Amino acid sequence: MSNNIKGGNSPIECELEANKKYAWCTCGHSNSQPFCNGAHRKAEATPSMVFEVPEAKTAFLCNCKLTKNPPYCDGSHK
Ligand code: FES
Prior knowledge:
This protein has 78 residues and is mainly beta. Helix content is 6%, strand content 21%.
């Protein structure tokens, strides 16, 4: 969507808890990157992508919003 922007130019390292729902920001407007804070509504941009992981892990979540493997960084920011 054309109202989407980059949240940043590099991924954000996150400690993810098992079986917890996370809302990854897809639009780049959130001030709580890499997670959604509802800013997409005012910006008329794309809504969050909710995900969870089966086991706790450290992950690098995409912040440029260009990844082909959301919510994870796939190197597309380079
Ligand atoms: S931060 Fe988006 S692909 Fe790396």
